[in-house]
Amino acid sequence: MGAVVAAMAASHAFTVMEPEAWDQFREMNRQHYKRLYGVEPPVHPKIEGETLENVKPRYEHVRQGLDFLRRHLRETQPDALLLIGDDQNENYSEQCLPQLAIYTGERVVANRHEFRCHQDLSEALCEGLLHSGFDVAVSRKFPEDRLLSHAHVHLLERLLPEGDIPVVLIFVESIHAPAVDPPRCYAFGQALRSVIESNRPAGERIAVCASGGLSHFSAAFPYHAYSGPFHYGSISEEFDRQVLEMMTQGEGEALAASLSSSDLLAHGDIELRSWLTVLGMMGKAKAEILAYEPFYRAIMAMGVAYWPTES
């Protein structure tokens, strides 16, 4: 039987950028919002209180968390890395918007970096999930093998720059409503682990990483489905902290059961679905939160976590 030997989660986007770059990329995001909706989004008032001088020490916690995840991957030496994230009209389009999908090709190119994919494992997961009641979409090829989904690209480049660990790319819908409900994400994670432990060769070592979140209201947020009090650039700090606290207590199943898609939408935490999938894989294991920092200058709350395992 295979085994999950490393489990982790991290935000992407601004999370992998130095604070000096945030203003430029925030403006690019604001212009994207304007193209989508015809008006410029509001400027969150809390941005004024965030200077480079006071965000840099806080961002250092995030950087250290990402560095820890990278070292953790090197130390555990997995045979494959399952990377779970969403797609924001990048590799998938309105011609096909799968709720759950797995890439089963041999390789992908992210920017200028090539990453080898664990084709045998990805195909086995698809088959095993099918027998478990999850009819996942299968992508055997991307045009020119290009991986465009930034949820995957950003963390691959940051955590696996050497490209020497084969990857399995898993897509969980988030930005198009309706999307997979939190309990279903948790059950999906349970099914993934079941396939690994029951259908894979003895001694196979698997790492998993969730990419996304935490709360943020950026240009890509599905505002057409939202009617709450938050607006562009908001962060639901209290909600984030409640979620992370339950993770540290090993209450992932209770967390998933208590949440609905409406809750995720209401708090801008739609990408939490990837974290919920990892929670399903880890059961009652208690998460260690390496960093949580809400940055209005970066229009997002950044989070980094991992789950200690017996590797």
What's the tally of helices? Answer: 9
* Largest sheet data: 8 strands, mixed
Shape: globular
Strand order of the largest sheet: 6-3-7-2-8-1-10-9
Q: What's the helical proportion of residues?
A: 25-40%
Q: Could you say what the CATH architecture is?
A: 3-Layer(aba) Sandwich
Could you please say which CATH topology applies here? Protocatechuate 4,5-dioxygenase, Chain B
What is the β-strand count? 10
Oligomer: single chain
- Over the alpha carbons, how many angstroms does the gyration radius reach? 18 Å
Strand content: 15-25%
**CATH homologous superfamily grouping:** LigB-like
CATH class: Alpha Beta
Helix/strand class: alpha/beta
How would you portray this structure in words?
It is a single chain. By secondary structure, this protein is α/β, with parallel strands linked by helices. The protein has one domain (3-307): LigB-like (Protocatechuate 4,5-dioxygenase, Chain B), CATH 3.40.830.10. The protein contains nine helices and ten strands. Strands 6-3-7-2-8-1-10-9 form an eight-stranded mixed β-sheet, sandwiched between helices. Strands 4-5 form a two-stranded antiparallel sheet. It is globular. The protein starts with a strand and ends with a strand. 47% of the residues are buried. The model has no long low-confidence stretch (mean pLDDT 96).
